[in-house]
């Protein structure tokens, strides 16, 4: 309800409303069009919104009688006149080619129940409806984005061991996400155990081939004399000992799906030639066969070897090297993404807990020590160590003294002050993870076998310190 600062006076039964400049400013802030008349229909005030909605300048309205304005067609119709006739609130609707206008006139009375002014509000319903449609469309788009995010999160959760909290691994996932929807060949580079297969599965899971097969082949684990038959299959009688009815190879098994060639640097040169031909011609024949088989396979290769040196040494074909290097992704070793280590530890401890039925937690100091270790075996080494620790820790808590000597020896390089700060930082992360996972301080403190008071005290202490330091 509009409030006005006004002085009402009587002179020969003529009522006027004097509206202060402050209320003029207030009226101009209202998004609805406002037009105010006195008891005879003379226009006293028009706000900016009214000018915008009806496209008439205030100078052409103020001081004129609204009855005359309607009569000469300046204003199509007026609820004000009907308010003056009925002494009741009146609503009118006017439609033209450009706008759908809703007029609502409201009378203002004095103590003798006489109308002293009429306030008329105007809304462009077409504009309002368009705004509603826009808001609805935005909500629909947001819902679609939420559904897509939920979908992709669900797909990511199915890829065991995919941990990407560090900036380095976030960059890897960004590259993988860009190439996933395409059919381009991808080359994954990185040390042994960094998670090349996990990234290959991520790419496959986010590709249009997700519903088809993902076939992994370790090129270094297949005997050379069996490689061709394993890759391309064979027909009955192709060689001594060939199975009756023949056998499909990897390319047939992966048809319309993804073929992951791990340790591609170990592939014999004879097979390199045939692989290159399949990549270029998209077809092959089984051993002993005459029928040409079309190949619809997406190739993802991986290696921990310096292929460039192998090319120089004539151990790897240069033309195949360039054919596989369409989209290279380098996965950094664990020592270069140490912020992932606590999350990897948490993930695999939960995995082994489910597998062995042995709930095991890890001491923050032990997490810190493990975060300082260089991990020459990368994630594979982390997995093996954690499973061993879960088995040997009878008290269900992994402590620093349970860690192998080669890992604890790294501590002599760490300054005591730095060690204490890092240890508290690790504990702060553990408190935050517990609170996020369980949703309340009571449940979070119980999960860490800590009193609620201690949990809250430590959380506040670390928040005050680390949140300021990490802004």
From TrEMBL:
Stored SMART domains: AAA (SM00382), PAS (SM00091)
An example of a GO molecular function for this protein is: ATP binding
Q: Note the superkingdom of the native organism.
A: Bacteria
Q: Does the keyword Oxidoreductase apply?
A: no
Identify this protein by name: HTH-type transcriptional regulatory protein TyrR
Per UniProt, which keywords does this protein have? Aromatic hydrocarbons catabolism, ATP-binding, Nucleotide-binding
User: Which residues belong to any copy of the Sigma-54 factor interaction domain?
Assistant: 162-391
**PAS domain location, by residue?**
19-70
**GO BP annotations, alphabetical order:** regulation of DNA-templated transcription
